[in-house]
Design goal:
11 helices, binds iron/sulfur cluster, 334 residues, binds S-adenosylmethionine
């Protein structure tokens, strides 16, 4: 187990496998912008990713999440899942996806060793969903991805909803009810100021407290104890059926004190925070012929020197008018 400069242990690794995406979500990668993507040669191969994960597991990582961009647009992504599933000591392999390609991919992902999946979901209405993701979408396509994931046993299937004022906040209760009836856990996420292009402002954030208030007007709910240190969602239980939902309050109630996540970008940089301005280049090390011990030393030193607590400093930085060039969400992976 390794600890950073505030004593936080390293447990989770989030791996962004591509910076490309088949959506253009307003809060991540707005369609009005032009984007430059990493050239193919700069993208880590599956073998390189496996090596980084193997070494990370020796340093205490027990869970990995595959993300992006959109992970399902990376060709043969199930081959990466297969490689990772061979790593001894790695307890959990999950994925966050926009769900568009999930109905065709869920089975092969499960067979390759994926344990569970989180699907991002924005609205129950085709026109709002399409507006959010910047392309014409039928909600039924995403729902069929969720249903297939349930059928093949990618349990638990969870749903993430990034709530933005004026965009989908009027649907909080409908979305909660809809997935409650399906037995699927929803996590409502506060809109975050990741990157520089998503037009974030504090006024567009719907607080986790407000989200809970909206749901509690209709349902009797009770808070659930955190099941492990560093769990980011505050969980609640519906008293009638025992199903849970969660809220992720990164803006209004930051949780940096327990943050145990390291992030790896598709082009081989380690990021110690979702709001990082820069990463640590592990790809050059690997491509230069480093031994596993060299890689281990590198990750250890990156983690040891970690001092990030952006969300706790956000309001202070905003009040000072500080402008920070942060890495974009579709490159970090959430
Ligand atoms: N493409 C995949 C997807 O959308 O699920 C994985 C990558 S995406 C960057 C990871 C998660 O971040 C998604 O659940 C997405 O809704 C969420 N997200 C993106 N931009 C966000 C923002 N500005 N604030 C909060 N959540 C955001
Ligand atoms: Fe793509 Fe996910 Fe970002 Fe939407 S949130 S643009 S699906 S990476
Ligand atoms: Fe972790 Fe950075 Fe988020 Fe704080 S702001 S919880 S350090 S990722």
């Amino acid at each position: 187990m390794i600890k950073d400069s505030y004593g936080r242990e390293l447990h989770d690794l989030r791996i962004s496998v591509t910076d490309r995406c088949n959506f253009r979500c307003q809060f991540c990668m707005p369609a009005e912008q032009e984007y430059e993507f990493y050239p193919r040669s700069e993208i880590l191969t599956f073998e390189e990713i496996k090596r980084i994960v193997e070494v990370s597991v020796r340093l205490g990582v027990s869970k990995v999440r595959i993300t992006g961009g959109e992970p399902l647009v990376r060709k043969h992504i199930e081959n990466l899942v297969k490689l990772l599933s061979e790593i001894k000591g790695l307890q959990d392999i999950s994925m966050t996806t926009n769900g568009f390609l999930l109905s065709e991919k869920a089975r092969s992902l499960k067979e390759a060793g994926l344990k569970r999946v989180t699907v991002s979901f924005h609205s129950l209405r085709d026109e709002v969903f399409s507006k959010v993701v910047g392309r014409s979408i039928k909600v039924s396509q995403i729902l069929s991805g969720i249903e297939t994931a349930l059928e093949v046993g990618l349990h638990p299937v969870k749903v993430n909803v990034c709530v933005v004022k004026g965009l989908n906040d009027g649907e909080i209760l409908d979305i909660a009810k809809f997935f409650k009836s399906m037995g699927v856990v929803v996590r409502f996420i506060e809109f975050m100021d990741v990157g520089n292009v998503n037009g974030w402002s504090l006024e567009k954030v719907v607080s986790a407290k407000e989200i809970v208030r909206v749901i509690s007007r209709e349902f009797e709910i009770e808070p659930v104890e955190k099941s492990y240190r560093g769990e980011v969602a505050d969980r609640y239980r519906y008293k009638d059926d025992g199903l849970e939902f969660g809220v992720i309050s990164s803006v209004t109630q930051p949780f940096c004190g327990d943050c145990n996540r390291l992030r790896l970008t598709a082009d081989g940089k380690l990021l110690t925070c979702l709001f990082a301005t820069d990463g640590y280049d592990i790809k050059t090390l690997i491509r230069g012929g480093a031994s596993d011990e060299d890689i281990e030393d590198f990750i250890r030193s990156v983690w040891h020197s970690r001092k990030d607590r952006y969300s706790e400093e956000r309001l202070e930085k905003l009040s000072k008018g500080e402008v920070i060039r942060k890495v974009e969400m579709f490159k970090v992976g959430g």
